[in-house]
Amino acid sequence: MRILIVEDDDLLLNGLTVGLRLKGFTADAVSNCDDARIALSDAAFDGVVLDVMLPDGSGIDLLRALRQSGSCIPVLLLTARDQVPDRIAGLDAGADDYLGKPFDLEELAARLRAIVRRAEGRASPLLHWNGVTIDPARMDGQARGKAFHLSRREFTILHALMDRPGTILAKSVLEERLYGWQEEVESNTIEVHIHKLRAKLGADFIETVRGVGYRLAPQRDQS
Amino acid sequence: MSIRARLFIILIATTGALWFSATVWIYSSTRAQVGVVLDARLREAANMVNSLIVDGRVNVASAAATVAMENSGLPIIAAGYHRQLSCQIWSLDGKLVGQSADAPQLRLSNHGDGFATNHVGDEIWRVYAVENKALGLRVLVGDNMKVRNRIINDMAAGLILPAALLLPILAALIWLSVGRGLAPLRDIAEGVAGRRATDLHPLDEDGIPHEIAPVASALNGLFRRVTEAQQREKNFTAFAAHELKTPLSGLKMQAQIAQAATEGDMRDAALTRIVEGVDRSDRLVHQLLEMLSVEAGYAGGTSPPMSILAILAEVRADLENLRTRRNIQVDLPLTEREPQMTVHHHLVYVVLRNVMDNAIRYSPAGGLVTCSIGQLGDDTIVEIEDEGSGINEAEVHRVTERFFRGKDVAGKSTGSGLGLSIVGAAMDQMRGEISFHRSRAGGLKATIRFPSSTETKLEG
């Protein structure tokens, strides 16, 4: 899941970025409203973590403008003031969830998974395809009844593919998912991770579409 | 006492006094006029009787009776005043020659020609006498004063009674009119009294009479100031909450990363961040306390005379750690005649420390910060220049706002946005000025004017 973090405090911004990556998210970070607007119009995010107080304006105003432009992207507000009226104002402006500072990394990750799941219209937090089930909260899964463990990057790629089964994801899209803007693209590229995934899930679970990218193999009969 | 009651009493008292004076005047004037008219009648009647006697048309004995007949011809003779005039004709040697039917038995008067007022028995009479020396007679025509007074009193009563009856009506009208006149004041009072404590919207100043417009506008001014103060307080609370809780969130985040980190590098990076975060929080707490002390009007009392240069040197020494870490050179001026500061040492120190702290913090590593001291009239000018990136022109006027951080440095610097607002508050206390310009080196130049006057704003 690719998350945009909008936070002006350097320490917290770094903590959020590193922490969410640790929890299996792809995190991109900006520190003001203008950059957030540009990022949101340029790239596809699954969710936004938005600070209410930003140097060039209010996160609430940014959120309101976002909703007015028709965007349904899940947004979690971060604020220092979490009294009931503040929470109501935030939710009424279009926030999907709300966390008062200081908050817990686990809770933030869980709430992000929940609002993204709801936005995608799924009831269960688990993703299923062709006998493979993954649990985003634990970053692991089961293949035909057998548990397997995934590295952070393997999980990110598999999660992206299982989010929209059948959709072809270009290598560049997966790279962006994996590294965001701020991370250096490392030498062990997408191919390496796909290879490892195939070893765990079966060679035919992920198909290569030559010259385009990757997708999950079509759903087989459940028999 | 209510204004209505007060106005009512004033109006009733003045109206009543005027009314009473008018009554007294009417009474005395009526009395005088009636006296003149009746006196004239006495004289005419006496002269008529005398001339009848002289002409010999009636005999002396019956002449007096003609007065009674004459009475009926006068308009004033109505029921109750009938047979008012009495006539006696006396011989000069003291014998009653004739009298009208209702004349008193006693002699009316002994005087010669003209008017006199006499006691006749129990009564008082007004008498006119005509002495006829040729016939040896004296004609006396008199009015009983009892009747005369009754006429005067009745006339006065006729004027005064309706006025007296009108008095309560007048009072009622005054009471109602005063109430109507005070309606706008009552409307304002009710409008303000009926408000909830949190309702501070301004009164509508249109249509308010100009006499109470100053009250309304003073109230509106007060409402506005209270609203602004509340807003500032609210903003401050919101900002302070944000500024205090955000680093805490960052610390917690980094601590949880350190706990969950699988790689040593990641844990070390998080721990380093935690240490930095604690330092930053410490600076923030320090600045918040400094802000409170400056805003509370703490001027530090008097201290031994100290030169600005000495304070600058003290500031530089206190910032030694930051200075060496960033490898910044801070140049102090070499002045012979140093201006002495005897008061506000603390405020001057706070201002210089925050400005120099910023200059060091925003200078490029290895940069130079230059301080200079000058005189402008009696005021002392301190300039502190750096080689940093300066402040965006559009943001220059906002730098002393609390928690304001320039867009370019937000997220990159570790500042709280409090430093310059503390400076602003301290300069306000000293009634000095601070302004920011682009320095020759392209960085920021802060020009601080410390006034020579030792007066501080007491209403800090």
Main traits of this protein?
heterodimer; A: 223 residues; alpha/beta; Rossmann fold; Arc Repressor Mutant, subunit A; five-stranded parallel β-sheet; 40% helix; 24% strand; B: 460 residues; alpha+beta; Beta-Lactamase; Heat Shock Protein 90; five-stranded antiparallel β-sheet; five-stranded mixed β-sheet; 11 helices; rod-shaped
Describe the structure.
The complex is a heterodimer of chains A (223) and B (460). Chain A is α/β, with parallel strands linked by helices. Chain A contains 8 helices and 14 strands. Chain A has a 5-stranded parallel β-sheet, sandwiched between helices. In chain A, strands 8-9-10-11 form a 4-stranded antiparallel β-sheet, covered by helices on one side. A 3-stranded antiparallel β-sheet of chain A has the order 12-14-13. The two termini of chain A are 31 Å apart. By secondary structure, chain B is an alpha+beta fold. Chain B folds into 3 domains: 168 residues, Beta-Lactamase (2-Layer Sandwich), CATH 3.30.450.20; 104 residues; 151 residues, Histidine kinase-like ATPase, C-terminal domain (Heat Shock Protein 90, 2-Layer Sandwich). In chain B, α8 packs across α10. The two termini of chain B are 38 Å apart. The chains are: A alpha/beta (223), B alpha+beta (460).
